[in-house]
Structure formats: structure tokens, C-alpha cells
Specification:
With 451 residues, this protein is an all-alpha fold. Helix content is 71%, strand content 0%. Helix 6 runs parallel beside helix 8, helix 7 runs antiparallel to helix 8 and helix 18 packs across helix 20. The two termini are 28 Å apart.
């Protein structure tokens, strides 16, 4: 595994460009292939333009998932709990295993929350256990826990297709999470990974007498994981003096009532919604993060500042998703989606289509590093193939979701907000996550093949 890890690290350092460059390459390839279907450049460009704005709703939803998860992780109570957790393990084995598991738990709850919370835990592990652990492996172990995100509460594909009005509803209808997230196949994959991946990470730790790389020193003024507490800011010093000096507008901004009432309103709506039989959708996921974050934050000013950090981390989604919509428009408009679906049908049966969907999604994810963007590109293809073969539609959708999550282990796109908090670069962790890629690919692919 060490040899393979070094190989992947060298490849990434030399040939892995920015994720936005992938959008260009995939767009250019799709444009050229579209013309091979008998369409001229103007016609293909027309399909691209028609699709460019088709997934703006999902773009906004994905942005809010990350931003609200970021803000929730930075509330004092949640942040304090994550810091306290770092003091539980007593040795390197426990540090690696627990860091992996807490990231898995947080990512199953929310991928946006998981990326931030996992980074905070890894960084605190590095601080508390400085000199006793190999910090790059701890950060890699944390990121490896992100592998399960698509099988949890905020999984983009299963929650999207459970949302009425999603962009593929005409082809596949609305699929409840009971058929995807709560399916025996999905639960089995999550449980197997939760047992095996921590063991794999522990096995990659340096030998006992080998040197350990500690967490780099980070300027506190540049740290991005410390929650702001504006209510305690004062020109002269203490909190009481600050309150006296505040004008009415500032008192409202630092009042606990504002965020508490807004959070309670969101929570009340969700309670009534679920009691009335409402289903889990991407919108309810977002609103639940709003409710928790607002009720747990000190005041409106603090929540706004934390939310700004999440919005900044979401720039890649905002920039790239419309281009993924354009790619989808070209693939559907030129008939490429149907042609590719026929290729899957040729090598698949109703039973094996989920397995081939998983492998195909893993390859596509290298170029489309987001669950929602990938579903926009690959979803129409796999739906058509599933319909023609009579395959289980929810299992095929989840196979695409797991394929997307799988190759995130060597795709740097989602590491960016995490590595900013951890203070490392992609080359520091790629060798370890590449080993996780191999092991998890065998595990997930094997389960999809037999279930």
C-alpha cells in the first residue's frame, strides 16, 4: 500500500489541475462528442446554453448545505464538544481510529458539517498529542471518514431524488429515502466501512521508532476554525462595559433572542412537517441545519460571521455547477446520454448494473467532483439503462452515489476547506487516501456485486 500511495502522490503533484480545469476538459470533450452525433457547433452550443441554468435550484441547495453545516460546526457548544473529544484517546492507535469514526458520524449527518467538524477534530488531535502522532496520517484518516457521506442524511443524490420537482422526476419519479438511504445495501456498506477503514488507517501508521510529523504552527489570527464571539468584543475591555457602550442596533445584533426565535421557528415548522407525514428532502436537511445552528449560536452577528466562512468555502459549487448543467444539456440534447446508456446495457444485466454504475461513477467523479453535478451528468444515462434492463432504480442511484464518494479519496476538490483548517496540503495526505481508495473500492464494489 505504501508503494501505491507514493505513486498516486507523484501523479497528483505533476498532473492534477484545479477542479475548474476539469470542467473545461469535460465540457470540451462532451462538445466534440456531441458533434459526432450529427449536430453542428451552433446546435451543440444551444444545448449547452439550454442546460446551463437547469440546476440552479440544486446549486443553491448544495451551497446552503455546506454553509449551514459550517456555521453549525462553529457554534460554541458544538465546537467545544469537538475540541473536548480530542482529549479522549490515549495513544496513536486510538487517535487514528477515533478520528476516522467521528468524521464518519459527522459526515453521515451532513457532508458540510463533517468536513468542518472532522478538520477541527484532526487539528485538535494534532495539538493535544503533538509529537506522539503522525499528523498527516491523522488528517488523512479524518478525510477517509468522508467516504460515507453519500450514504447519510445529507447525501446529495438520495435526498435530491426524494425531493418533489427534482430535475429528473419525469424519468424516475420521486424515490423516498426508505428505498435508498435505509436500504439493506446502503446500511451494509456503511457498517462494513465503519469497521474496516479505521483498521486500514491504523495499519498505515509509521513504525514505532520512525519520526512523526507534528502539526505545523498556525498563526491564531489566520485560523479559520475558531468561532467568533462578537458579543464579547469591547474597545475598553470587559463585556459589561461593551454592553453599556453599544447603540440599540448593536444590542439587537448581539441579542440572543434574534437567533433563538428564528431557530425555534424553523424547528417548529420541521416538527409539524414530519408529524404530518413529510419526507426527508434536501430542503428539510438544510432547514434542520439552520434551526440547530441558529439556536446554538450566541447571537446574529456571530452566526453571520460563521455563515460567511461557509459561503466562502462553497465557492467551487457556485462556480462550477452551472457548467455541469451545460454538460448535462449537451449530453441529453445530442443523444449522448442514450448512446452511453446503451453501452452500459451491453455489458450489464439487471443484477450487475449497480456494480458497473459504481465503477463508472468513480471515473466520472474524477472530472465532476460533486455529487449533485455528477448526478446531473450521469443520472439520465443510468436511469435510461435501469429502465431498459429492468434494474432496481434506487440501487442504481445509490451505486452512482457510492462511486462518487469512493474516488473523492483521490479527488482534491472536497479536501480544500478541510486542509485549510488542518494547515496541510493535498500532497501531505494523498498517499494515505489512495490506499483507502483501493481497499474501499474492493469492499463497496463487492457488496454491490452480490446484493
Amino acid at each position: 500500500m505504501r508503494v501505491l500511495s507514493e505513486f498516486f502522490t507523484r501523479v497528483a503533484e505533476r498532473y492534477l489541475p484545479d477542479a475548474f480545469v476539469f470542467v473545461f476538459l469535460l465540457s470540451a470533450l462532451t462538445f466534440i462528442l456531441g458533434m459526432t452525433q450529427g449536430y453542428g457547433p451552433a446546435a451543440v452550443a444551444g444545448f449547452w446554453g439550454d442546460g446551463f441554468f437547469n440546476i440552479l435550484t440544486f446549486t443553491a441547495q448544495s451551497t446552503l448545505v455546506l454553509a449551514t453545516g459550517f456555521a453549525l460546526a462553529h457554534t460554541p457548544w458544538v465546537h467545544g464538544a469537538l475540541v473536548a473529544f480530542a482529549r479522549i484517546p490515549r495513544n496513536e492507535v486510538q487517535v487514528i481510529a477515533l478520528t476516522t469514526l467521528v468524521m464518519m458520524a459527522c459526515s453521515l449527518f451532513s457532508w458540510g458539517f463533517g468536513l468542518v467538524a472532522g478538520a477541527i477534530v484532526a487539528r485538535q488531535m494534532g495539538i493535544v498529542h503533538r509529537g506522539k502522532i503522525h499528523y498527516p496520517l491523522v488528517v488523512a484518516a479524518s478525510y477517509s471518514g468522508f467516504l460515507v457521506w453519500h450514504g447519510g442524511y445529507s447525501g446529495a443524490i438520495p435526498t435530491l431524488i426524494a425531493t418533489p420537482g427534482h430535475f429528473l422526476e419525469d424519468q424516475m419519479g420521486v424515490v423516498p429515502v426508505s428505498a435508498t438511504l435505509l436500504s439493506p445495501m446502503n446500511i451494509t456498506i456503511v457498517l462494513v466501512l465503519a469497521v474496516i477503514i479505521p483498521v486500514v488507517n491504523v495499519m498505515m501508521r509509521p513504525k514505532a521508532d520512525a519520526p512523526r510529523q507534528s502539526i505545523p504552527e498556525i498563526d491564531p489570527d489566520e485560523a479559520v476554525d475558531t468561532p467568533a464571539h462578537p458579543s464579547t468584543e469591547a474597545a475598553g475591555g470587559n463585556h459589561a462595559e461593551a454592553q453599556v457602550a453599544m447603540v440599540p442596533a448593536e444590542r439587537m445584533e448581539t441579542s440572543r433572542i434574534v437567533t433563538l426565535v428564528l431557530g425555534a421557528l424553523a424547528a417548529l415548522y420541521l416538527i409539524a412537517y414530519f408529524i404530518g407525514g413529510g419526507a426527508v428532502t434536501l430542503n428539510t436537511v438544510i432547514l434542520s441545519f439552520f434551526a440547530l445552528g441558529l439556536m446554538l449560536t450566541p447571537n446574529a452577528r456571530a452566526y453571520s460571521r460563521s455563515f460567511q466562512g461557509g459561503a466562502k468555502a462553497a465557492y467551487g459549487i457556485i462556480l462550477q455547477f452551472p457548467f455541469y448543467g451545460g454538460i448535462m444539456g449537451m449530453m441529453v440534447g445530442t443523444g449522448l446520454a442514450s448512446a452511453l446508456a446503451s453501452g452500459f446495457v451491453a455489458i450489464s444485466s439487471a443484477d450487475t448494473l449497480p456494480f458497473w454504475s459504481f465503477l463508472g461513477a468513480g471515473v466520472v467523479n474524477i472530472f465532476v467532483p460533486s455529487g449533485g453535478g455528477q448526478w446531473a451528468v450521469q443520472g439520465p444515462i443510468m436511469i435510461s439503462a435501469a429502465q431498459e434492463l429492468g434494474a432496481d432504480m434506487p440501487n442504481v442511484a445509490m451505486a452512482v452515489a457510492w462511486g462518487e464518494a469512493w474516488t473523492n479519496m483521490i479527488q482534491p476538490f472536497w479536501t480544500l476547506p478541510m486542509l485549510a483548517i488542518a494547515g496541510l496540503g493535498i500532497r501531505d495526505i494523498m498517499g494515505y487516501t489512495a490506499a483507502v481508495l483501493i481497499v474501499s473500492g474492493v469492499l463497496i464494489g463487492g457488496i454491490l456485486f452480490v446484493m
